[in-house]
Amino acid sequence: MPKYPFVSASVKIPSLLLLFITVAACATLGAQELNEHYGKAQVQARLHKADSAAGEFFFDQVKPILDSRCISCHACYDAPCQLKLNSSAGIDRGITDVPVYSGKRLIAAQPTRLFTDQQTTEQWRAQGFYPVLNERQQTPEANRSASLLYQVLQLKQQHPLPQRAVLNPAKFDFSLKRENHCPAVENFADYASDNPMAGMPYGLPGLSAEEMQTMTRWIEDGAPLGDLPPLSAGHQQQIDNWEAFLNQDSAKAQLVARYIYEHLFLANLYFNDLADTPDSRVYFKLVRSATPPGQPIEVIATRRPGDNPGVKQPYYRLQRHSATIVTKTHLPYALGKERMTWLQQLFFEPDYSVARLPGYEPENLNPFKTFRDIPAASRYRFLLEESHYFIAGFIKGPVCRGPVAVDVINDHFWVFFVNPDATVLPMLDGFLEQQTKNLRLPGIEGSNAGVLSYWTTYSKLHRQYLLAKADGLKQVFKDNPIDLDLIWDGDSHNPNAALTVFRNYDDAAVVKGLVGNAPKTAWVIDYPLLERIHYLLTADFDVYGNVGHQLNTRLYMDFLRIEGEYNFLKLLPPKERVRLRDFWYRDASSRLHDQLYSYKIDEIGKPDIPYSSANPKEELYKWLRYRLRAVLDQNYTLDNPAVTEPQRKALQRLQEVQGTPASLLSESTILLVEGDNGADKLYTVLANRAHLNITSLLFEQDNRLPQEDSIAVTYGISVDYPNTFLRVREQQLPELVAAIAELQTEKDYRRLLDRFGVRRSNPDFWQHSDRVQALYRRQQPYLAGWMDYNRLENR
Q1: Assigned fold of 645-779
Q2: 333: three-class secondary structure by DSSP
Q3: Exposed/middle/buried for 620, CB within 10 Å: 0-12, 13-18, 19+?
Q4: What torsion, rounded to 10 degrees, do the Cα atoms 260, 263, 265, 270 define?
Q5: Given 444, 489, 676, 713, which is the most exposed site by the fewest CB atoms within 10 A?
Q6: Strand arrangement, sheet containing 412-417
Q7: Model confidence over 333-372: pLDDT tens digits?
Q8: Residue 157: phi, psi to the nearest 5?
Q9: For the whole model, what pTM was predicted?
C-alpha cells in the first residue's frame, strides 16, 4: 500500500495540463450552483494525527510550500483578509473582509486573535469568517471548484506575471493602504474576471508545476490538516514545573505571577534545559486559564492582559504555540532552572509582603499602582536584564505597524540604561508612590477613547512628573557626581546593556549592540520609562481599539521618546544639552515646543566627565563604548569575526554614504554576498531617513531632510519586512558600493537593480528567497523566522 494512499502515484507533471483544461471548463460556480452541485456548506473535520498518512503528507509536502510561498504575506495581523496560513487552525478559519489595522474606526472592533478569541472553526464562522477550503460534498471536483485557495492559485497559473522588470502600477497595487479584496468562492468568478492578475502569490511568481501538483492533489483529497505530535516527557515535566511555580497560593506569589504574565504574554517561551535544536524547538505561550494545572486549558480572552479575567482566580498556563515562526512576531524567551532560580531570588527573597491583591478596575491598568508592593528594584531588574525582549515587544507587537505608529521614533538611535545600583535607586519606591497619579497611561481610558480629549490631561501629568523628577535629581546630584557610573554596564556580562533601534518607514527593528555610525540621538532609559514603554505599547495597547485609543497611544509616546532623549542629554554639558535639543526639534509645532521647553534640562550641574573637544556628544559615545566594552554585542556589527576583511572594508565605505544616494535606496535591503566555495553571507542595508523633528502625525514628508540621510549595514538579517533583495559576488562588492555612492536619480537606482537586484518580478525570485531563508537560519538559528514580503517594492 502506498505511504500516501490519497495521492495518486501515477500522476505525472505533464498531466497538469489536462487537469487545468478540465478545471477551466468547470469555472467557479455561484452560491446557488455550488449548493445544487455539491450541497450546502458545512464545516469539515480536517485535523489528522501527525503520524497518520494524511498528517505526514501535510507536514512533509504541503506545509513546506505554505511556509515558503504563502506565509510571507499571510501570517501576521496585517495578513490580507486576515488569512493566516502558518497554522492548521488559521487555514481552516479562513478569511474576512474586516481589517485588523484601521485608523478610522470610531468604535473598537471585535478581536479576532487566533487561538484566543475563538477555539473552533464553527465559532469563527459565526464571527463572520468564511472558508478558503471546500466545506461542501467531498469529491475531487467539488474540492477544486469550491476551494477559494485552489482558485487563487490556479488564477496565477492561468495569468502569470508579465515578463517585465517593473510591474504596471495600474494593474498591481502594492501600496500599504491598498484595499483588500476578500471574495468568497461563491463570487470568485466575477472577481477573477475583473482582476485576472490577482492570483496568488500576489505580485510574485506563481508556484512551480511540482508545487501546484502537490497543492492540487492535497486539495482534491479534502485538504487534510496535520495536528502537532504529542509533547515529549521532558517538555511535559517542564510545563508541570513552571505551572506549579506560577500558581502558588500566597498573595505574594499570585501578585508576582500576574506581573510576570503581563510582561511575557507575547513571548515565544521555550525550555533551554532541553536538547531542542532550532529546527525542533517547541514554543509556548503564557496564557490565563479558567482551569488549574492538570486540566485542559480554557483560555480567558480579554483585550489586554491586565483586564478583568471574569473568574475568581485565573491560572497561568503554558499553551503550546502551534504556528510556524515568523520574524515579525518572534519574541523568544528562555525558561529553565537558571531562570526559575533568578525569578525566585528577584521576587521572593526580598523582604516584603502583600496584604491584599489588587483588583482589575481600570485604574489598575497603572502598573505603578497595581504592583507597588513588589520592590521597584526587583521590577527594574526583571525588565533590565532582558531589555532587548521588552524593547522588541513594542517593535514586534501589534502596535508597531503603520507610519502613525512608528513615526514617533527616529530611523536610527542607540539605547542605554540607568545603572540599577545608582544612587537614585534606593529612594525610587517612595518617589513612585508619590508619582503614581502622574504616571497614569492613556490605556486606562479603554479601547473606545476620545480622539484628542486626553492630550492636554496627559501632557500636564507628564510635565508634573518630569518637574518632580528634576527636583529630586537636583537634590541627589548636589552631593553626588553626574558621571558614567549612572549607566548600566551590563554587570560586565549582560549584552542587553546597549541596544540599537532602526525604523523602516512603518516598521522597526531592535538589535543588541551599538550598530552603525554614531546616530543623531540616543536614549537613556530608567525603570519608570521602561515600564511605561511596555505598558503603553504592548500590555495596554489594543490593536482592535478605536482611532482615539490609537492616537492617544501615539501622542503619549512622544513624551516617552523625549524623556529618554533628555536622560541622555543630562550626561552632556548644560549648553550642549540645549543646543542638541534645539537641533533635534527644529521647527517643532508650537504645542510640542511649549512641552519641550517646560522641561528644564540645564538646571542640573555639569557632569563629571572629561570633555575636551567641540563635539561632546561624539566624546560621550566614545566613553560609553569604553564603559560597555566587555558586553557590547558584535553579532550585528561589521566587526563580527564572520565578516571577511574585503567585505568589511567595502561595507564600511557603504556606511559612509550620505545624502541623495541614501535617500534613493530602499529603507531595508537584504544583501546576499556570494563567497567562494559556498561561503555566502547575508547583510541588511538600512537607509536611515533624516527629519527636522519626529513630531508630525500626518505630514512626515514635510519634515524630511534627504540631504542628511545615511546608511547603516548590519551583519545578518535585522528586518522583518525587506523592501529589496540584492545579490553580488564578493569580488563585485566594491562595484556595488561605488554604484550606490553614485546614485543621483531613480533611473540610476533602476539600473542598479537591473544589474544586482532580484526584483519581485524575477522568475527566479522564489529560488533566491529559498536560498536567503536557508542562509538566514544557518547564520541566526535562534532568531530566524520567515520574513514578510508585504513591503517588497516594485521599482
Answers
A1: Nonspecific Lipid-transfer Protein; Chain A (3.30.1050)
A2: strand
A3: buried
A4: -70
A5: 676
A6: 507-512, 499-504, 412-417, 521-525
A7: 999 999 999 999 999 999 999 999 999 988 788 999 999 9
A8: -65, -35
A9: 0.93
